[in-house]
Amino acid sequence: MSPSQTKANYDVLIIGGGPAGLAAAMALGRMQRSALICDDRRPRNLASSHMNNFPSQDGIHPAEWRAKVTKELEKYPTVSFFTGRVLKVEKSGSAFNVTLPDQPILSVRKVILAYGVEDPLPDAPGFRELWGSAVYHCPYCHGYEVRDAKLAYVGNAAMAHHVLPMLMFLTKDLVLFTNGATEIEPAFREQLKKKSIPVFEEKIASLIHEGKVLCGVKLANGQIVERTGLFVAPKIPLTLKGSIGEKLGCEKTEMGFYRVELMGKSTVPGVFVAGDIMSMQHSVLGAAASGQLAGSGAVFELTREDFEQG
Ligand SMILES: Cc1cc2nc3c(=O)[nH]c(=O)nc-3n(C[C@H](O)[C@H](O)[C@H](O)COP(=O)(O)OP(=O)(O)OC[C@H]3O[C@@H](n4cnc5c(N)ncnc54)[C@H](O)[C@@H]3O)c2cc1C
Q1: Residue 17 near residue 81, CB atoms below 8 Å
Q2: What pTM was computed for the model?
């Protein structure tokens, strides 16, 4: 009996088929471990038409990249796909029971959580419509394409402290929208003044746009500030796309992601974590790297258990 033909249906359940889950599946497939990768098709970069900052794939369409990786995974017969949402995972002895829609309950030996994060945006009209085309989450992913444009950072002063200095290297035409009253330390306010970065502390009423092109930001007092690109601060603590980890007892950090040790191990034995839900390094390459690590972590534990029992 090979290690993957144990009583469990699969060695590993991977929840999420984004870069983290796909990379975990590849590591498992290459070690001939059976893995079921479940994905309900809500990848974080869905709104984007280009995936940047990934050596060898810079600028590719995210869907094309996912299709390429999925094709590569066909080579590994122990990797299976399920399109749909994982509804429940419960501990059962040393294994886990998994509930999928309209399927018999499955048993798996390890679980990799790779279900990504949501992007709650300011509620003013325009943010959701322009998300990924003129409203962005990350200067590394989209900054180069909008260099020298009329840019703004939308976020409180604490976040602006980190990101505004980076944006200054992309454009000289930069403003800060705090989107409502916020405490700005006098020293930071002075620095912004010295660097000629205007600060608008009114609530944003709406974004003015023509299709996917941003023209300006309308404030609650009626003022319109001409802008063509906005970077939006993440909402902390992060909003994860699921709570299966919490239900299993995984500890979280103040920032809202799961606490992990070496090789993506969560605080619950047998549960590993990868991608955006385990750190603030929110990029495709970062997620894939942590997915590979979590996949290797699961292989490591499975191998040790099988060797010791066999
Ligand atoms: C608009 C935008 C553009 C971006 N552009 C870039 C870029 O150019 N370059 C770059 O490096 N990074 C970019 N990023 C960041 C990058 O997309 C993320 O860091 C990366 O996708 C995280 O990968 P992940 O696998 O952790 O999560 P995701 O890619 O979000 O994948 C998680 C998957 O899990 C699935 N899922 C969730 N819950 C369940 C469940 N219960 N059952 C089954 N499936 C489930 C979801 O449907 C989703 O497909 C961008 C992000 C955004 C928002």
Answers
A1: yes
A2: 0.96
Local structure of 298: helix, strand or coil: helix
Q: Can you name the residues that pair with 39 across neighbouring β-strands?
A: 83
Residue partners of 259: CB distance under 8 A and separation at least 6: 250, 251, 252, 253, 266, 267
- Which CATH number is 252's domain given? 3.50.50.60
Residue written as token pair 């009209």: 125
Cα 133 from chain centre: 18
Pocket of ligand 1 (CB under 6 A): 15-21, 38-45, 47-48, 51-54, 85-86, 114-116, 119, 131-132, 137, 141, 241-242, 275-276, 282-285, 287
Q: Which atom of ligand 1 is nearest to the CA of 84?
A: 43
Total structural domains in the chain?
A: 2
Whether residue 117 contacts residue 241, with contact meaning beta carbons closer than 8 Å, is answered with: yes
End of a domain among 181, 197, 232?
232
Among 81, 52, 53, which Cα is nearest to 67's?
A: 81
CB within 8 Å of 40: residues ≥ 6 apart: 83, 84, 85
Q: How far is the CA of 266 from the centre of ligand 1 (A)?
A: 20
Q: Are residues 82 and 132 in the same domain?
A: no
The residue count of the chain comes to 310
Ligand 1 centre distance from Cα of residue 153 (Å): 22
222: left (phi over 0), alpha (psi -120 to 50) or beta: left
Q: Which atom of ligand 1 is nearest to the CA of 276?
A: 26
CB contact at 8 A, 33 and 6:
no
Q: How far is the CA of 15 from the centre of ligand 1 (A)?
A: 12
**pLDDT digits over 197-227, tens only?**
999 999 999 999 999 999 999 999 999 999 9
Structure token digits, residue 11: 């060695």
Question: Which whole number is the average pLDDT over 108-118?
Answer: 98
* CA distance linking residue 194 with residue 283, whole number of Å: 32
